[in-house]
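User: Sequence in, structure out. Go.
Assistant: Echoing your sequence, followed by the structure tokens.
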Amino acid sequence: MDGPVRAEVDDVGLVLGSARALIDNVGRVILGKSDQVRIVVAALLARGHVLIEDAPGMGKTLLAKTLARSVGGTVGRVQGTVDLMPADITGVTVFDQEHRDWHFRPGPLFHHVLLFDEINRATPRAQAALLEAMAEGNVTVDGVTRELPKPFFVLATQNPYGEEGTFPLVSGEYDRFAVSVQVGLPDRESERALLRRVGGRPALDELAPVLSPAELDELCDSVATVHVASSVEDYVLDLAAATRSDASFRQGISPRATQVLLDVAKSHAALDGRPFVTPDDVQAVGVAVLAHRVDAGHRLLASGAARDAVEQLLTAVRVPDV
């Protein structure tokens, strides 16, 4: 292990302890979904936004609320509806009759965590209000650019496209979500526990934060220092190039997505207590990072075809020796 990597061990140890506390806290509410929770936490540590996709009743909103409460800070909430307007998300400038002056009334976007429930029930115009915020960490309203709190995360849920009253997210918006996860059905014993009111919404009511926004911000900075060898960089670039040439995909991933893939892989390494990334880390997060971007010909998420195509890609691209 070389000098720079050795120097980062203490930081990664700190990340590991705090991240385990976060994962355990979420696990008190979301039972039997440790893999999904781990991916979401890895995305948050990479300063990424999270899209939780599944059919109604699977616990999408519960997972998003649990994460929002666990990381502390302030939480804004938006319910996707067809009559939602961009100003309902960003805020609006209003005239104060008493003081005879204009002032800005911030919308739910101005929180550390924005929970956007059923995002694809909002119209494309309303969805577009998120793009600047997710990419830049600020928002422009009436010609004035305003900074959002730091850290800033969007946790969005959506039902499968094709249900009545849903609008597909555009590719540019999908690209701004670091990962997409599906909650899925609980195993039998987890579902039995929910019947007995162990975990689930009763546990959420009693949940306390395990991190402050400042602590989470420091953890994100530490994750960014995880070492990446040039051979692992080449592997990530090979995967990106493969998505752009594989006929299974309607489109290849963007350079932004290539960076996100590596960033989330860094988080995955830190969650394993390692100050360096391996190809296994890239493979572990590859489906969650890539599947919603490459779009294997449809938006019918329940079929899982995009995820299957990415898994085949991860198998086909040569893994380097490190």
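User: And one key feature?
Assistant: Confidence is low (pLDDT under 50) at residues 1-7.
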